[in-house]
Amino acid sequence: MPSTDRMLVTGGHALEGQVRVSGGKNTAVAVIPATLLCDEPCTIENLPDIEDVHALADILKDLGAKVDYIPGKSMVVDPRPAEGTSVSYKNAQRLRASYYLLGALLGRCGKAQVPTPGGCDIGTRPVDQHLKGFQAIGADAGEIGGLITAECNQLTGGDVFFDIVTVGATVNVILAAVKARGTTVIYNAAKEPHIVDLANFLNSMGAKIKGAGTDIIRIRGVQHLHKTTYAVIPDQIETGTLMIAAAATGGDIIINGCIPTHMDALSAKLLEMGVKVTDYDDAIRVHVVGPRRAINVKTQVYPGFPTDLQQPMSALLTTAKGTSIVTETIFEQRFRHLDEIRRMGAHVRVMDRTAIIEGVPELYGAPMTATDLRAGAALIIAGLMGRGVTEIYEPGYIDRGYEHIEDKLRSLGAVIEREPIA
Ligand code: UD1
User: Fold this and answer.
1) Is the pTM above the cut of 0.85?
2) Which fold has domain 25-231?
3) How many whole angstroms from 360 Cα to the centroid of ligand 1?
4) Which of 141, 276, 364, 418 ranks highest by number of CB atoms within 10 Å?
5) Residue 2: which pLDDT band, with cuts at 50, 70 and 90?
6) pLDDT digits (tens, 9 = 90+) for 10-45
7) Ligand 1 within 6 A of 129 CB?
8) Ligand 1, residues 166, 215, 233, 309: which to mutate, most atoms within 8 A of Cβ?
């Protein structure tokens, strides 16, 4: 649904001070469906107060689970009354991660139906590897007429060889296999921090998952999962977005409550640009001390440079001194934000999956439209750097994944507000 309001960002204010990062979106959207696998109520803490989390709470309620959700605090899910096996089209369209209900429902009751999910339009995003994984552990799985289905009387552990590294399919197979009979081994698994966090969550309920964070994950099926209270890890991408925002505005900020090692790929690139980055136990300081130099960036699976930070990073590079080359290897349509930032005076050429960015001394405020979640974050970064006022339409995309982003940026000295569109 189109947003009825817009964001107004007045650029030129260096960010300064301290800010706390929220719980991880990509962990939250895997952990919430995973509660369906539990045989008792479980409590999840540190969930970000974002639209994707609200959507998943609604989906679990629709399936019949009892959900007590206090936004910004905790969610208690009692999955025992849940009898549903299908997600409605309307709910599936609200977020990409609605397809985690496939693995969760298949693992819970041997049957799942989820319409092809919505979420960010950043490329084709097929589900062939998810289906291949379900089939490898005995399920009948397919996609037809916009509906993804998976069914099995008794899931049986097996070897799953992914052709490519995929976060989504790794999560889905873990969910489906956790209560299967026997052992499932995932080869070429994704290693992102949220995969490790999902495994830790499931293990805290009695699951037997080993190897999460490496490219071979072993899941020994268990019959029962018991209650747990679990706090999700801090958001890697929000942390990175705030780091880039500090670098973009010539600022000096400390981001508290983050995991600095998750940020190594970004920190290395900021250091290469000439920005000072200092790691503490659970905080990072980003401090601009001089001009920012152009760099080359290539997105990779973890621990490489995350595709989700490519968009904010390429926005920052529009004002770095020299020519930067940004190569997007994960999603084919992840440069649409640069078309918008060109309106602010950026010099950018996009050829297929490569963007050549010639840094300009200054950007000028302009009206722009967010086309997806991280594109929206990129437009905010550009707005923070621009002279004058930048109007960002469709801020609803940003609300899907960033908790109270305006409040956080305002607390650091940014001038940013939201107003209804007249
Ligand atoms: C997840 C993240 C998203 C991030 C992305 C890459 C969540 C909720 N979302 O998305 O923020 O940008 O990882 O780090 O965690 N692919 C196939 N077939 C499949 C599955 C994927 O070809 O069956 C392709 C995709 O089109 C893409 C690549 O594999 O080109 C990686 O996708 P994947 O890691 O699955 O991304 P998501 O799980 O959708």
Assistant:
1) yes
2) UDP-n-acetylglucosamine1-carboxyvinyl-transferase; Chain (3.65.10)
3) 33
4) 141
5) confident
6) 999 999 999 999 999 999 999 999 999 999 999 999
7) yes
8) 166
Q: Which atom of ligand 1 is nearest to the CA of 166?
A: 34
The three-state DSSP-derived secondary structure of the chain is CCCCEEEEEECCCCCEEEEECCECHHHHHHHHHHHHHCCCCEEEECCCCCHHHHHHHHHHHHCCCEEEEECCCEEEEECCCCCCCECCHHHHCCCHHHHHHHHHHHHHHCEEEEECCCCCCCCCCCCHHHHHHHHHCCCEEEEECCEEEEECCCCECCEEECCCCCHHHHHHHHHHHCCCECEEEEECCCCCHHHHHHHHHHHHCCCEEECECECEEEEECCCCCCCCEEECCECHHHHHHHHHHHHHCCCEEEEECCCHHHHHHHHHHHHHHCEEEEECCCEEEEEECCCCECCEEEECCCCCECHHHHHHHHHHHCCCECEEEEECCCCCCCCHHHHHHHCCCCEEEEECCEEEEECCCCCECCEEECCCHHHHHHHHHHHHHCECEEEEECCHHHHCCCCCHHHHHHHCCCEEEEEECC
Domain ranges of the chain: 5-21+234-420, 25-231
CATH superfamily of 5-21+234-420: Enolpyruvate transferase domain (3.65.10.10)
Pocket test for ligand 1, best of 50, 310, 329, 330 (most atoms within 8 A of CB): 330
Q: Which atom of ligand 1 is found nearest the CA of 171? A: 38
What is the predicted pLDDT for the residue at 119?
60
Active-site positions read 120
